[in-house]
Write a structure and sequence with these properties.
- Keywords: Kinase, Transferase.
- It comes from Deinococcus carri.
- This is Polyphosphate:AMP/ADP phosphotransferase.
- By secondary structure, the protein is of the alpha/beta class.
- The chain has one domain: Rossmann fold (3-Layer(aba) Sandwich).
- It is about 40% helix and about 10% strand.
- The protein has ten helices and five strands, in the order H-E-H-E-H-H-E-H-H-E-H-H-H-E-H.
- The chain has a five-stranded parallel β-sheet, sandwiched between helices.
- Helix 1 packs parallel to helix 10.
- The radius of gyration is 20 Å and the shape is globular.
């Protein structure tokens, strides 16, 4: 499994049809599930080092269509982290206060401080996706906002925050199956929104909007197109990318300010 296969190269034109939604990385489900626990253990260790060091931050951006698996990713992958060192933020319809500011105002306020892992379950990209599809902004304004997002992400990286962005790529058939499963299960009705069907009808429009958003991939804040039809592979691939990213950040425990050998606890 080579995570670089799923990384959007800087300056690359993105055509989502070129990315398989049911890719398994050449692994069986049993092989993938056997590998995951070791990666999650390593994630927990690296996060502890990041928290103890307090000099860097990691921001994980999750974007997907409805039923794409954002919440499942948070539960299965982010769940490996110590909650004390994680901040999960959900960006929904802006409030009146948020609309009275620039579109990045509410986003910047939730950027992780040094030592923390920040998770954006939906993100700044909502303001160039939903708004564009529903005609709240035109293509020219959407491109201006993408430029602002590039600058914003550059500011974060210059300030010690590593950014990694995941687009969970599912097929219309898989989305239909997941939405139907919610509808068929009374305990999942709270997750079903009839409005999701209206968004589903705009599948091609969202494809074009996502393709434009994914062009913001850079060396410092890359996008990964994650095949998400297979939940086990989604979790495995994201975990591997996070491990690779944190290992590259190489957080270190701070040097002690005392001589441990000279201390005796009575």
């Amino acid at each position: 499994m080579n995570p670089d296969r799923y990384r959007v190269a800087p300056g690359q034109a993105v055509h989502l049809k070129d990315w398989a939604t049911d890719d398994n990385g050449g692994l069986s489900k049993e092989e993938g599930q056997a590998r995951l626990p070791g990666l999650l253990t390593r994630l927990a260790d690296l996060q502890e080092r990041l928290y103890a060091e307090g000099q860097q931050a990691l921001l994980m951006v999750l974007q997907a269509r409805d039923a794409g698996g954002k919440d499942g990713t948070v539960k299965k992958v982010v769940g490996a982290f110590n909650p004390n060192g994680v901040q999960v933020s959900n960006f929904k319809v802006p409030t009146e206060e948020e609309r009275a500011h620039d579109f990045l105002w509410r986003i910047h306020a939730r950027a992780p401080r040094h030592g923390m892992v920040g998770v954006f379950n939906r993100s700044q990209y909502e303001d160039v996706l939903v708004t564009r599809i529903h005609g709240l902004i035109d293509d020219q304004e959407a491109e201006r906002r993408l430029q602002h997002i590039r600058a914003f992400e550059s500011l974060l990286t210059d300030s010690g925050t590593r950014i990694v962005k995941f687009y969970l790529h599912i097929s219309p058939e898989e989305q239909k199956a997941r939405l139907q499963a919610r509808l068929d299960n009374p305990s999942k009705h709270w997750k079903f929104n009839p409005g999701d069907l209206e968004e589903r009808a705009r599948w091609d429009d969202y494809t074009q909007a996502y393709e434009a958003a994914l062009t913001t991939s850079t060396a410092a804040s890359p996008w990964y197109v994650i095949p998400a039809d297979r939940k086990w592979f989604r979790n495995l691939l994201i975990s591997q990318i996070l491990v690779d990213t944190l290992e590259d950040m190489n957080p270190q425990y701070p040097a002690p300010t005392f001589d441990a050998a000279s201390i005796t606890i009575q």
